[in-house]
Amino acid sequence: MAGASGAEPRPDWDDLRYFLEVARTQRVGAAAQRLGVDHTTVSRRVRALEQALGTLLFDKSRNAGFALTPEGQQLLVHAEQMETALQSACEQVAGLGQTLSGHVRIGSTEAFGTYFVTPVLSRFQREYPAIDFDVLPVPRFVSLSQREADLAITIERPQLGPYVCSKLCDYRLQLYATPGYLAQYGDVSTFADLTGRRFISYVDELAFSNELRYLEDIVPGCNVVLRSTSVIAQYQAALQGEALAVLPCFMAAQDPRLVPLLVDDVVVARSFWIYCHEELRTLKRITVLWDYLRDAAQRNDALLQGKAGQLLLT
């Protein structure tokens, strides 16, 4: 939107809504669907914003979609802060009795995001159908400082930053094998039975946290025949019945094709932490989701500790 004669052009702040959706989806079509408008409207509003600011906000590619330029990344930070402030103000003015709505992006460790967070969120959406989610179950840390997610669940407590953080839950990992493996290579009833066995583990130099380097502590000098940065890949490898793997109980205990071994002797204890930016913690939908995830974790403590084999959603 042009300003008065002789003045620099001023952006139409409503264009920021279109910018945010394109930045999040990286596709004009997907952004248009979310906004309930035609894709040409989204393209036009983004172009208008770029013209008003005098800079390119996206690199457009048929294959990669709309990728943010450095200038776009800078604008995204400010636009999201403005969005958060507006949402918080609207929630306070409208009161808490209104139906919760909006968008939340959750980053999580790969296995927990896949086998716990995703099914729990599906049940959450039955109660709050107007809230939609992006779930990022990735084998790395998600950066809240770069606004990769609104809420993060990780295996290390963040040490610095303007975050609200608390322990979500404790969980355990155990040594697993298939019944077929035990039939072919022999039972494992003592540590001595692990001598000469084949194992599955992480790629040590690519593990994103020291909390993942536990196999060497359990079986020093063990023979690792398959390594992966993905715990889900390790899980799939263990199912083939050719090697042993240390896996999270919340994932492996739900699969009857796997049997825990040395359950009283091989137990790796870890914790999950949940955190978000301070300003986001005031949003009602974040507060409700935060509490819902904590309740779900408490309700499933037996699964997290390897004492149950089913995820409880109610």
TrEMBL record:
Keywords: DNA-binding, Transcription, Transcription regulation. One of its GO terms (molecular function) is DNA-binding transcription factor activity. GO terms for biological process: DNA-templated transcription. Residues 11-69 form the HTH lysR-type domain. Coiled coil: none annotated. InterPro entries: LysR-type_TF_proteobact-type, LysR_HTH_N, LysR_subst-bd, WH-like_DNA-bd_sf, WH_DNA-bd_sf. The keyword Transcription regulation applies. It comes from the Bacteria. Belongs to the LysR transcriptional regulatory family. This is LysR family transcriptional regulator. It comes from Pandoraea oxalativorans.
